[in-house]
Amino acid sequence: MNLKKETVTNRHELDLDHKKKVKSVQKVMKSEHRFVNLSEIFKALGDYTRIKIIYALAHEELCVYCIAKILNMSDSAISHQLRVLRSIRLVTHRREGKMVYYSLDDNHIKNLLKNGLEHVEQNKGRR
Known about the structure:
By secondary structure, this protein is mainly α.
């Protein structure tokens, strides 16, 4: 009988603890819109080719021709991927005469890539 009373008391304390945690996290939750935007970024980063383009642009501002040569792909394939990256503002561009040069939109993208690569390299023996 004493055991049941202790279990009920512990469950009540646990429920109070859970309620505090739920309220704490609910206070800092972002809007649905923010999560949708973030998921679009991760979808774009889920593509192998786009990751390589971002990696190249993290090192140098490049034109489509240069990116195509680096990745050993066609200009049209690279242009398609750059359109996707531009549409979600991971990549920006500037014109110089007839040439268009691409770069990362800001350092957040570079940091996201850097952190992801650090995680992969740190855990390379685990797979």
